[in-house]
Structures are given as structure tokens and as C-alpha cells.
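Annotators were shown the component list below and the corresponding predicted structure, then asked to write short factual statements about the assembly.
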Amino acid sequence: MKKELLVWALAAVPLVGVAELALHVKQTTADVASDSDWRSARASVSADARTGDLVLFAPFWADPIGREFFGDELAGLAREARPDETRFARAFEVAVHGAHRAELDGWNKLSEKRVGKLAISLYANPAPVQVLTDVLALVTPARMSVSQVQNNAEVPCVWQRGPGQPGGLGVPQGPAVPGERFVCSSGTYVGVAVLHGLDHHPHSCVFASPPGNGGSLRIKVSGVAFGQSLHGHSGVQWLYERTPSLERIEVAFSAFGRPLGQNVHRVGSGWTGFEFPTPELAGKTGELTADVTGSGPRAYCFEFDTRSPAP
Amino acid sequence: MTSDRETNTQPPTSIKEDDAQKQDEAASNSEAPKTARKAPLKSGETARTHADLLIGGGLAAVYVGWLLATARSLGFSRDEGFYFTAAYEYKRWFALLFASPAKALDRANIDGIWSNNHEHPALMKSLFALSHTLFYEKWKVFADESTAFRFPGMLMMGLAIFVTYTFAAKAYSRRAGIVAAIALGLMPRVFYHAHLACFDVPIMAMWVTCIYVYWRAEREGGLSWALAAGLVYGLTLETKHNAWMLPAVFLPHALAVHGQAMSRAASRSSRIPIPTSLMAMATIGPGVFLLLWPWLWNDTLPRFQEYVNFHVHHEYYNIEFLGQTYFGPPSPRAYLPVMIAATVPTATLVLVLVGAADRGRALVRSGFSALSVAGGVFARPFAWVSSWPKSDRVQTDLLLFLAIGVALGPFLLPRTPIFGGTKHWITAYPLLAIVAGRGFDVVSTAVETLTAKYVKLDAVTLVALRIALVVLTFGGALATTVHSHPFGLSAYVPFAGGTAGGADLGLNRQFWGFTTQSLGPWLSEYAKPGDTLYFMDTAWSSWVRLIDEKRIPPWLRGVGSPADAELSIVHHEQHMNEVDYNIWTEYHSSTPAYVLTHDGVPIISLYRRTRLAQ
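Structure shown to annotators:
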């Protein structure tokens, strides 16, 4: 009986090849979303989307196709290279193969529909916020000034508008140096670029590597509308962050002559968030100062906004 | 020669009592006594040998034809670009050698030319150069220079197919041989690498050839096969550094086969008789290695040391595995088994398991047999197996398992870099295919036994049944392999979810930047004359060849940075996300103009610079 079973089991081996063929046909035809599926999905989301809605593509590897079809209007830099999802009131998730983005866990699903091979789900943020000031929009000489502080002396960094340095043919190449940036005497700079985070996701942020040797960068932002909190993130380019070390970079925030909070970023901790309550400043507008210090020039990047719960 | 072959015309009516036992008998029968070996070949045996040559050669020729037919649609990998450049250089030296031998042998000329890409031996690059001279320049066989460069690599794949067939046919059965060749040829990764002017498929071919020739030397005895083993080992050393691991196959095997004789001889005469083939490999091998690599002709020892150091201390490139990019030790131990399971067709792997179980059982039995006849303390406990058949004198199964183990083993070690994906253990694949061939023997016998219960199997029906079995077993592998082209490194087997499954699992999608050519149709339609294109991971020399052979629009101008480019591309690999994001920063947009996909999975994103209002 045992031998008989073995013979039957051996005889069934060619069926593995048959199953392989059947799966292959399915995976290369029925499972592949077509261009028209993507175009239809875009039309559907575009019809329902409100200003400030987030559009996500699942799984993450499908993101380039989503960006290609949805374009800057629906899936531009601000959404794709977002600091996190908390600032968005609603999110559309466009998914292939039934995938789901973990970022939306805990959000309330409002609707779901199928467009060809794609599934479109609409989610609501359970704790929506109102962003009052986003530093990424203020990195211009009109709203920001940067100086390098060394031995209590402040040396202004100069605003430059020129060609960027987005890397060459070799990898790894580090972050792009943006064309528009404040350039400091030590060679460090302050400007907005997209960070390749430890999680391999993109994050727009202000690159502001401290000059080292005990020096710091002082960034002053004018016209900041304060809310209930100061919310932000910090990180170091993946290339450096992937090797954890004892290095730390600190950013200390102050406004109206008093400290608001200090964030310490340890190399290796990835793109991490921070939040400092500022209820006493809510409703005020004024200058905010960020002092960045650290042990050496690293591809350090941070961002912050001021916010209050959505009305 | 083997009883398996006899079943070609004699359908089995039931499963043999012990198929492996029968195989052992077949193997030991094939080890004819020396007196018989010296007798002239019988006409049947000659005809069988000729038939094997025809079948093996036919399979190889068909495969090389397939490679040639698909070569134009496959772009150039980074390494190919470097080897094209080296081959151009070596061509200069060969031309000098024929025109003015004394000048060619001048140190300045040797060092000047052969220092190019001296981290790898010269054999394949020399063949690329000679092929270019003969098949492109002189006889104009190929329209593309690259095809002439690639042709020796394709022929090496033909050699691998031929040897795999022959080895399995001689060791097990012709049926096993045919299936082994098919199994090897229908591995998507092997099909991809077989196109290239690189060394991975050549070392795969030479690895199995070297083992085969050594095996023949052991089987046949005599000087000619032993000398051949020495020569082939030298050529293998000259192909790629994997060859330095081969002694770890041959020495234990020789000890297993000749250990007792060595021990007896040593106790009688204080001299240890070493098999002639090993002596030849130890002497002729390094000689051939040195002779064929002019760079080693001067400052031999320091340069050899440099060569060793390069590979021993090779840098760790980035490679993604299960969603994590590895860039240094420790390498994940699961890498090898997971990647084999995800890239080798599943039916082939199941056959490998069946064949390995069958031959492993035989191997264990032969080990016990050896112990039981060895006498002494082992005689009594293993006396119960003394009735088993005499084992294969040359320990074919042990040789195969050693050859597989030595090829795969290093990749289970934490310090071994894994950046090459499956290509670094590709040397194991012909041997695995042979085991799969043997597995198919077992499966086929089972099916025939069951079928015979219900249908009378005549010779024609039996052949038809076997063909049907091959088609059913390898239909998926064939479809997967055909479909994988020209994205062979992105392809994963259906049971792993295909290309999308590989992306879901976080497995590497590609490396070497060879997929740039697949943008050709889009670029032809949408790129404007004079457009500059940042070609990212494609090597300059590969880019030049793409342009030269009009595989992409020749009006494009390649540049080395998105800063200078109207069009920029990123080859999707996890660690290259930084390139993607840097292009976003530079172009102030995250929207690609085009995404090249395979089965809905992004392979390359192409961006066009949008001019911002100043």
C-alpha cells in the first residue's frame, strides 16, 4: 500500500509542470492591470478627489506606474515624498493584486470599487489636522535666513540658484544637492531635496548638515503661523543611516524667545517623527528658529510644520 | 550499457523491486573490467556513442540557435561593456602576435594590453576577441559586433547542454540525459546568462565538463582521459576563479574511490599512488592557466597574488533580498535556498528532489556496503547489507553530490557576498539537471508502471507516453523561460508568483542595467534628435554599443548625470531609489514620462525634464 502510494505520488510529478504552466498564464495575462485600467482608475479618483487628498498605490513597487498615470496633479512630489500621512484628511488607495498599504491601517474605509484589475479604496483619517505652516514651502530668501554659527559668531549663508547636483553614473551617490539652496562658508548647505530614507521611501525635507567642529546651523523662518503643536521628522540619507552609529544630530526649536523643543536624531534610527505641543502659541504668527548641531557633516534632513486639529 | 536504456523498448510491467538497486547494477555494469575496456567497441556500442553525439549535439545546436535568434532583443549588461572593451584590446595583441610575434611578446605590449580587466583570466575575453575577428570582421557571419562577442559564451552554453546530456546519458540513461539537457536549458536565469559575453555560463560549462572528463578518466583509466582532465582543468581555471574550488570535489571523491588502494599501497611500499587524472590536473592545469594568460607572464607571483586578493576581498555590492538590501556580511543563509526555489522551475526542482532521494539512497547503501566489506570493526554491524549489489566503482553519485555541494556550499557561509544573485552558483545547475534527469527516470518508470496496468504499452505508445510526460513536466518551464526574455533577471517562477511575486517578496528585480535597450521603442517614438539621456546603471561601453548597433535611437546623446539630461532613467532596484528621488529633486517632478514594465512590474522609469518658468 505504501509503495502503491509512492508510485502514484511519483506519477503525479508532471502535474507540477502543468500547474506551473497554468499559474504562469494567469500571472502574465489575467493578473496584469492594463494601461486602460490605470487610465480609468485615474479618471475615477480625479472625479472624486478633493484638494489635499492623498493618493497611494499599493503595493509600493507599483508606485512608479501610479505616478506615471496619475501625474503631478494627483500624485506629485508633495504627496509622494510626504513626511507622513497625518496631514491628509482622506486617502485613495489604488491597489493591484489586493495589496494594501500599512500606512492606512487604522484609517476608516469609506468605499471600495474595482476598475479593471485595480481596486480603489477611499479612507478617512481618524484624526485629521490642519497644517498652518509647512517649512518646505518657505525655503526661500524671502522667508528664511540661514547662518553658520561658530564660536558664537554668526556667518550668513548665501542663497544660490544654480544647477543642481543630482549624482552621476555610480551608486551609491548620496542625496541630490538642490540647485536652490543656502550655501555656507564651511561648504554645507540648506535646501529642499528628496531624502532616500532608511525605509527606502521618499521624503521631501530640508537638508541641513551641521558643519561640525562644534559649529551649528541657525535657520530662521519668518511668518510662521503657530498652532497647537510643532510636528516634524528627521532622517539621514539611507546610504549613511543604514550603518547605525553613535553619531547624533540635534535640532533645537525656539520662538518668541523661548525654547519649543529639541529633537535628537541617532544615525540608524531612520525617518522618525517628533511633536512638540505649542498650545500657548496657537494663533500667533512670528519667527521660528531651528539650530542644527551635530558631530559632523552628514546628509541630515528634517522638516516640520505647525498644526492644529482640523476644525 | 544500462538496463534503463533497455526499457526504451521493453515496457515495464511493474515497478522494479528496487529501481535504485537496478541503477547500481547498471552503474557497476558500466564499469567494465579493464580487459573488456581494451577490447574493441562492439558495433552496437559504437552506434550508441554516435547516437549520443547526435542527440547531445542536436540539443546543443538547437539551443545555440535559440540564443542567436534572441540575442538582438537583449540589451548589454554592465560587465559585457567592460569585456567588450577588453576584447577590443586583446584583439590588438593577437593582431600584433600574428604580424610581429617578437613585438607582441615584448613586456610593454603584454602589460599595456593585458592589464585591461586583469581581475579575470583571459580565456573567454580572448575567445570574444577571436570570434569578433573571425565572425564579424572576416567572415561577416554576424551583423552585430556584439553577437560576435557573445557567440563564444553561447557556444559554451551549447557545450554545457552537450556535456549535461552526455554525462546523464552515460551515468543513468539516455532519457535522463535528454531531460537533464532540457531542464538546464529551461531555467530562465540560465537562458538569460547564456546570451552574454560574460563568464558565468562559460564557467558553468567548464565546471561540468571538467567533472565529466575527470569521471571518464576514472571510468576508462588510461592516459588520454587523464591528460584531457588536466587540460580541461587548466581551461576551467582560465575561465573563472570558481575553478579553484574544484579540488574540493576531486580530492574527497578520489579518496572515496581509491582510499583503500592507497592505504594498502602505502602500507606496502610507503608510497601513495595518486590517480593520474589528479596528477594531470595538478600539473597541466596550472600550466595551461599560466600559458593562456599573458598578464601573468611578467611578475607572475605578485600578479597572481593581486588576482587572488581581488576575489578574496571583493567588495560587497548592494542586493535586495526579502525586502532588505544587503551590502556586507553577514549574508542571509536563506538566500541560496530561497533564490533557487524562486528562480528554478518548480517541476525541475521536484525532479531534483526525486533524483536526489533515489541517488542518495543508493549512495548511503554503497557507503554501508563499503563499510561491510572493509572488514574490521565495521564488518559486523553492516554485515546485513552485504547482499546488496556491488556499488558503482567510480562513485558517480558521490561525485555529482560533491560537485553540487562545492558549487553551492560557499553561499551558505555568512561572509560570502550574494550580490551576483543566482549566477555565482550557476555551476551547480548542470549537475542538478543531471539529478533531475535521473528523477525523471524514476517518475517515468512509475507512470509507465501505472499505465501498463490499464493500457498495453508497445514501443510506439511508450515513446509517445514519454514525450507527453516531458511536455507536461516542462511546459511551464518552457513558457516561463520564453516569457522571461529579455527580463531574465526580473523573472521568478510561477509558484513564487512570477515577476510580480518576486516584487511582492522583495527579491532583486535586476542588476547590470541591461534593460535600457527595452526602452528603444518608446525612445524611437518620443525622443527628439539631440535629446540627452542619463542612462544610469548601464556602463558607458554598453551604451556606446547600444547606440552603435542602433538598438536605441542613434540620435540620442548619453550623459552621466540627470543635471545634464533632458531624459533620465532609473533601473528599479531598491538601493537605486536614491537615483529615482534625486531625479525628482532635479526635475521638480515625480511623474515619469514612461514606465517600462514586465508583467505589470516596473523595470525602468523614464523622466523628461520639465522646464520651469524662471
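Statements collected:
1. Chain A has two domains: 35-127, 130-309.
2. The mean pLDDT of chain A is 96.
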